[in-house]
Amino acid sequence: MKTPIVNFLKSYQEKSPVRMHMPGHKGCGILGFEGMDLTEIYGADELFAAEGIIKESEQNASSLFGCPTYYSTQGSTLCIQTMCTILCQDAKSKGKKPKILAGRNAHRSFIHAAALLDFEIEWLYGNSDYLSCTISTETLEKEIVENNPTAVYLTNPDYLGNLLDIKSLASICKKHDVLLAIDNAHGAYLRFLEPSLHPIDLGADLCCDSAHKTLPVLTGGAYLHLSDSLNQVWKNDVKHFMEYFSSTSPSYLIMASLDAANEVLDTTFKKSLSECIQRVDVLKNALIQHGYTILSGEPMKITISTKEFGYTGNEIANFLMECDIYPEFYDSDYIVLMPSPYNTKDDLKRLETCLCKIERKSVVFNSFHKLERARKVMSVRQALFAPSTMIEVSKSLGQVCSSVSVSCPPAILPVIPGEVIGESSVEVMKYYGIETVRVVKE
């Protein structure tokens, strides 16, 4: 598969051109890779009006993912904002007011999109802890019937690696003529499993992938995918919507990495992924034999529920970092490790050796406080743009939340902008070490 963006950048660099254009480093800055960092000069195409090398590269990506695919150099955040715009515009085109039924573990960029686009949200809490939001088909259908949304928005995989039954959930959405959008930020690689577990292949109407999370792509590289049917309606508007939220100077280095990844995905990645999954399975089994509790879910996450082993996730993470092994995420209850085909066998062996040196202790029994549903008194937009102040969580009872700063990963938020902070919200924030919260000024 051709890599037109990479080829252009290399060809331009080899000319030793006189760069009377941005960026200011002129191809010879202090980091060593500036030579391929360009702006939209002649021949370099434009991301949001692609007619040349970027268009060709996006078409290559579309063939790999089996659906219309668009690049983002601002991560899944830009894709989520664009997805929400499409959902809103689609609802309005049908004479409806946008109302999105969303899993409560939505990423903060979804909350910010709600504030910017001013759409209504009805929350799905699911039946899991704060990092997961398990939604059954029965629950989804019940909520669709009761709330009459114009779209459903779910996060899959979640931060712990849990997978929803997207195929069944998509069928429920289609039954009720409701669009299904998936935040698949952690699951770009799911397309390259046998069989594919990618949301579009399972019936979703649109989704985003953070390519940089699980594929060999620079940080910030992401994809927006649309189903063929939805793309037929909105293909002339997708880039226009992306421009609402995007920088006018998208990174060519990130685009080049997306472009270069196409060749890898087309040739060696499936085999490398399959071999890595086998190695990861062996590692998981070794950890289970040592006494660890490994959560089931997607194959390329190792999520350890640490308290059964006698430690908090923070303590296990400290052991690992003393071995110069750095986890993706950890808190009081879990530690999340994200290998990829670019981790060596030695990497996994070092991880196993370090974890298996830790001796099992008595189970830690303290658990998080049950979260009660918060009372909404204003919209997300009203709360987020209202005059606000930062106060101590211990003094926030009864105040109206004005910020999503209480969230780290995509997680069940204790309280959303516009909701009243109740006793359970205070206890949950304290449990996770959140000391301050922004509230609407009285």
UniProtKB/TrEMBL annotation:
Residues 3-287 form the Orn/Lys/Arg decarboxylases family 1 pyridoxal-P attachment site domain. GO terms for molecular function: catalytic activity. Its cofactor is pyridoxal 5'-phosphate. Keywords: Pyridoxal phosphate. Gene3D superfamilies: Orn/Lys/Arg decarboxylase, C-terminal domain (3.90.100.10), Type I PLP-dependent aspartate aminotransferase-like (Major domain) (3.40.640.10). It holds the Pfam family OKR_DC_1. It comes from the Bacteria. InterPro entries: Orn/Lys/Arg_deCO2ase_major_dom (IPR000310), Orn_Lys_Arg_decarboxylase-I (IPR052357), PyrdxlP-dep_Trfase (IPR015424), PyrdxlP-dep_Trfase_major (IPR015421). PANTHER family: ARGININE DECARBOXYLASE, DECARBOXYLASE, PUTATIVE-RELATED. This is Orn/Lys/Arg decarboxylase, major domain protein. It comes from Holdemanella biformis DSM 3989.
